[in-house]
Amino acid sequence: MYRAELLERLRLPFTKARPEVDETPLPNESPSALAQRLALAKAQAVASVNPSALVIGSDQVADLNGQPLGKPGNFERAVAQLTAMSGQLVIFHTAVALVCHESGFSQQETAVVRVRFRDLSREEIERYVRAEEPYDCAGSAKSEGLGVSLLASMDNDDPTALIGLPLITTCKLLRAAGVVVP
């Protein structure tokens, strides 16, 4: 949903597809490598059934002191993630892969966003999680919504990266594939 809304900004025709990809981290896999592997796997899965299509795959992994934080899935895990991130620097790796099996095109890049969370009380965390239910977001915070109130600072080169699809990076890959943007 978030990525489709972002992609609509580019005014290019597209179709959404949800690939079935196991998102379990491999042993000793860094958060950045995990995001890259999953973005490419998602793009390749869709491209395998649509070989002439130019397919975008993307994945985001939050990195807290080298440990990957995925989607929490429920209230308790979201509270636990945000408690662990309170007062901490969290690095969000948002990987994008662009693949076309027919042409053999395959490129990928990762946008990095460094986010400093405020010192958060248990009450603030629970109030936020109840209000926004960020169960499908890596790191349990939606910066495009109320989650921005949890942050002390953000450092990035692509303001859409934290939402889930770095459009500056995506445009670069699309141009490399021959797509005219704008």
Task: Summarize the structure in short.
By secondary structure, the chain is of the alpha+beta class.
Descriptive notes:
There is one protein chain. Helices cover 31% and strands 24% of the residues. By secondary structure, the chain is of the alpha+beta class. The protein has one domain (2-10, 27-176): Maf protein (Alpha-Beta Complex), CATH 3.90.950.10. Strands 2-1-3-4-5 form a five-stranded antiparallel beta sheet. Strand 3 (89-100) and strand 4 (105-117) form a beta hairpin. Helix 3 (75-85) packs across helix 4 (122-132). The mean pLDDT is 94.
Overall residue-averaged pLDDT value:
94
Distance between the termini: 22 Å
Number of helices: 5
SS class: alpha+beta
**Overall number of domains:** 1
- The ordered H/E elements are HHEEHEEHEH
| Oligomeric grouping of the chains | single chain
The backbone outline, from C-alpha atoms, is elongated
